[in-house]
Amino acid sequence: MQPTFSSSRILLPVRPWFIVFSLLAALLLNFLPTAHWPGIPDWVALVLCFWSIREPRRVGMGWAFVLGLMMDVADGAALGQHCLAYVLLAYIAASQSRRILWFPLAQQALQVLPMLLASQFIQLAMRMLAGADFPGWGFLIGPLIATFLWIPATFLLLLPQYQPVERDENRPL
Amino acid sequence: MAGTDHAPPPFFKRGPAPLALLTFYVAISLALFVVDLRLKSLDLLRQSIALVTDPIQRIAQTPGSLVDNALGYLRGLDDLLEENASLKQTQLQTAPNLQRLEHLESENERLRKLLAVKEREKAKGEVARIMYTARDPFSHKIIVDKGQQSGIVAGQPAIDESGVVGQVTRTFPFSSEITLITDKDQTVPVQVVRSGQRSVVFGLGKGQLELRYIPANADIQEGDLLVTSGLDGVYLPGFPVARVVSIEREHSYAFARILCAPVAAVENFGEVLVLSPRQAQAPRPPEASGRIGNTGAPVKSGDK
């Protein structure tokens, strides 16, 4: 919908089923056994953040809350841990969406990093307050990796919205 | 009625303000968090959400198990023959003990009957396959493939071939969650085999356990085996739990700091035996009304 500052391409409108599909795919990625490896990002947080920035009117805190509940149950974590982190993430992302989309992709990634870090920190703080043990600094590497994945993720998630570039030899514009 | 005329037409409506929504969701999340951790009364909610997430999790686990199966299929014949031979050898080595065990058990039973002591409970259980380790990095839990449908209830202990693995903490329709003994909140009442001293072993959360409340001058050595004492009414007595790894005795503390390593391969994949719940224990004898309790609670006379 929104052509960014850096690209002159006008995108097709997003299809709602693709948003749902990408969020479910992220959930599936999170459930893979690879989640135990250090530095694997929280895919749901990344995709949720992406859609909250791109389409703040379609994906918001409601989605964040439901996905958070599912993550909590699937993780065996305390209920409300992912919910709170994701809801805050969606809120911050949506409130910053107008601004962030003006930046080129690399700078967008830099602005996404503090949001993802904050969502991870909230979970850390909640569990540490509740008396859990410290999981190690590897817990905070995930958002860093996710930041590097921002550009490929943007490319992939916007893929269905690109339209073919038609070049007309006879028309200068 | 002037207000309604100037109200924006409905196509500008975007629902409640973001800040109001945020407050609403944050309040619900915090309430869930507190209720779940403090009151532990949200199991029904968990189970109903698990009905949705469980199929997705099973789908997510299939690639890994497929690879495992493929690797098992591709393992060399030699490996299997070797393993078979070594298993046969160990079976032969343990055979005399096993054969005499039955004899000993029956003899023990008879002697206990003679002495009018309550018979020892036999360990029965259900074999469950470990599906995956729970993703939560703050705790140490595993998910096994037997749940409420197989009659598993929270509180049942789980063992593997060498010792105690953990305890079932939550059950779902088709799976259940076992908290490992190394988890930070997990405690197991144990007994030192060599000296018979009883204590409680606490998980430390780093694949280690700590034996607490043992006086600094107690008779305990490195390498001592700890087995379940059975005093809690949950674990049957006599299952190996941990082995003492290091002992620090400092004179400034009343208790020694004793670190132990679990005997069972608690953090590995495989199969566990979920033991059936113990028979109900005899009720605790009522406290004598004349005795001064050290609990500080007011003693009511005639309250029996």
Tally the helices of chain B: what do you get? 4
Overall domain count of chain A: 1
Sheet with the most strands: spatial strand order of chain B: 1-2-5-4-3-12
Question: Cα distance, first to last residue of chain B?
Answer: 71 Å
Portion in beta strands of chain A: under 5%
Q: Could you name the CATH class of the largest domain in chain B? A: Mainly Beta
Share of helical residues of chain A: 55-70%
Helices and strands of chain A, in order, run as HHHHHHH
- Unreliable stretches of chain A, pLDDT < 50, 5 or more residues? 1-5
Please give the radius of gyration of chain B in angstroms: 26 Å
Total helical segments of chain A: 7
Query: By helix and strand content of chain A, what is the structural category?
Result: mainly alpha
Number of strands of chain A: 0
Shape descriptor of chain A reads: elongated
Instruction: Report the largest inter-chain contact.
Output: A-B, 44 and 47 residues
Query: Strand share of the residues of chain B?
Result: 15-25%
Low-confidence stretches of chain B: 291-304
Largest sheet of chain A: none
CATH superfamily of the largest domain in chain B: Rod shape-determining protein MreC, domain 1
Average pLDDT level of chain A? 84
Could you please describe the fold and organization of this structure?
The complex is a heterodimer of chains A (173) and B (304). Chain A contains seven helices and no strands. Chain A has helices spanning 16-31, 43-54, 61-75, 81-100, 105-129, 141-148, 150-158. In chain A, helix 3 runs antiparallel to helix 4 (81-100). Chain A is elongated. Mean pLDDT of chain A is 84; it is low at 1-5. Chain B folds into three domains: 16-63; 75-120; 124-279, Rod shape-determining protein MreC, domain 1 (Thrombin, subunit H, Beta Barrel). Helix content of chain B is 32%, strand content 23%. In chain B, the strands form two sheets. A six-stranded antiparallel barrel of chain B has the order 1-2-5-4-3-12. In chain B, strands 6-7-8-11-10-9 form a six-stranded antiparallel β-barrel. The relative contact order of chain B is 0.10.
